[in-house]
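Justification of resources, computational component.

The compute hours requested in this renewal are based largely on the per-chain cost of generating structure records like the one below. Each record pairs the submitted sequence with a full structure-token output. That output is archived, and it is also reused by downstream analysis tasks.
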Amino acid sequence: MTGKKYLADQAATLLKFAKATTDPDVAAGLLSKAADLSAKSEEAPDPSPQAPEVDQPDS
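The structure output for this chain reads:
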């Protein structure tokens, strides 16, 4: 599955293109796709390493 950072970067790129275009239909399409990617990034797992669960011995 794609990571959060990748999806967020792709959404940011689409937003930059949407701001740069003069065609409102293209801008609307890019904004729609950026919103979809943003929503997916919120659902994506965080790829940062997690500490393993360790059982502590009883003292």
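Helices lie at 4-20, 24-43. Residues 7 and 40 are 7 Å apart (CA to CA).
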